[in-house]
Sequence to fold (324 residues):
Amino acid sequence: MLIEAWQRRGAGAWLLRPIAGLFGLVAEARRQAYARGWRKQHRMPIPVVVVGNVVAGGAGKTPVVIALVRHAQARGWAVGVVSRGHGRRTKDGQVVAARSDPRDVGDEPLLIHRATGAPVVVDADRVAAGRRLLAEHPGTRLIIADDGLQHLRLARDVEICVFDDRGVGNGWLLPAGPLREPWPRRCDLVLHTGKRPAFAGFRGRRTLASTAIDRDGHTIALTELATRDDLVAVAGIAQPQRFFDMLRGHGLRLQRCIALPDHYDYMHWTPPDNALLLCTEKDAAKLWARAPAALAVPLDFCIEPAFFEALDARLSSFDGSEAA
Fold:
């Protein structure tokens, strides 16, 4: 598996080093173009917090964005989210609604909107997304950009870099390693979502909720599911094994685990017979169209208070970032 190969400096990684060197030169030239003003950055009239990572593959950014939105809402800030909407079939900008098709707006933006109620706009151009967000919701006082660390056209006031237990892998750039850009780099806040952080930073903890949810919003305790022997887990996420391991950690006896590509759309997928499917919230909106009886198991994400204190301290310096 590529993610595992990127954890070491094997023969394949060494062979790809020359290509990684070219990748690094192009990435550095692009950064310098924005830093020197040769390419223009566009600044929003309100603070922008970018959540991203320097490592290819999922590191848990979506739960972080949801946690940030909920924190801002609890503080009384009017907050909105912009995202590329990775994996969607449409190319134009879209305003996400609760009934949006995840194939049109992306599964992660839809999950963020449904989980928080915050306005979400998807567009490959985050600047265009930010402008549309403010046009539709002029009272917004904070923008959170989901997965926009390398989208340098959008100026940012706070950068949050998210890591999981992989850390920076073998420390080499793509394709010899997992890095999209060299690390270490300047970053306001580093947040680790795994159990074994590779270096200093704030900590967050991912756990499964104690209940599963059906397509109508009804809940069932995982303890009730622990007595069943017809459970099949399916996940179309970056690292599905983590989801499977957490289900087993709750005492669920999984008859089978089905790992699918990240952002899998389930359009032509055939569910197994005589099984109760368990999936992630990210998969649910697409899977329910094919398997209405499937249950989604939400992910709870708890970030240490010191992280939010550091974030609030940075945001407090921006006029209008706090609710009156």
Q: What stands out?
A: Residues 11-35 form the longest helix (25 residues).
